[in-house]
Amino acid sequence: MATLQKIQAGNRAATAHKPETQFHVNYQGEVDKTVDPLIVVSQLVDPDPNKPAFLTGLRLPTIDDLGLRVPHSVCKFFEPFHESNEQANLTPRYSFVDLHVDYGADGLSVPIGDCRKIWLLYPPTIHNLMAMKAVDGQRGRLVRLVQQLEGCVVVETNSSHAIHIPAASLHA
């Protein structure tokens, strides 16, 4: 219920001093501030293959209560921060997140529940980063660049997996 209340309240609770507390509704693959975020919740039950909506960057106080921790096997590669930046993304079936780069820190993604995610991961080589720069601000980045990018790794994850995404890595 708290999650629905947070989504229904929208970004009104976010302040100019804390823009990182805002979440984004993505409709047909693009951020769209005019779309009601509760459409995303409804698509968790009744997904729309023609107009999928998803929500990114939702920060909930209850995420800590879920007990999400960095898997021990991953800790031999990097040490998690004590101050975490835990976010929930609601991605109903048919959701597609275009090629992008998360700047600032490494990421760890853990699907929750009965779902599977297909990831395309590209290393942050000079070639790949320059290609991304060339399509900055454009839609359909993956379609535009898929033949040009180097070093693609395709990974399928479900709720029994965690995926580490190094800072500056391209992924969709």
Describe the structure.
This protein has 172 residues and is of the alpha+beta class. The chain has two domains: 1-94, no CATH class; 98-172, no CATH class. Helices cover 20% and strands 22% of the residues. The protein has five helices and ten strands. The protein has helices at 2-9, 38-45, 72-75, 126-134, 141-145; strands at 24-27, 30-31, 53-58, 88-90, 100-101, 107-109, 116-122, 153-158, 163-165, 170-171. Strand 1 (24-27) and strand 2 (30-31) form a beta hairpin. The two termini are 30 Å apart. 12% of the residues are buried. The model has no long low-confidence stretch (mean pLDDT 81).
Which characteristics define this entry?
172 residues; alpha+beta; 2 domains; four-stranded antiparallel sheet; globular
Task: Note the topology.
Elements lengths: L1 H8 L14 E4 L2 E2 L6 H8 L7 E6 L13 H4 L12 E3 L9 E2 L5 E3 L6 E7 L3 H9 L6 H5 L7 E6 L4 E3 L4 E2 L1
Antiparallel strand pairs: 1-2, 1-3, 3-4, 5-10, 6-9, 7-8, 7-10
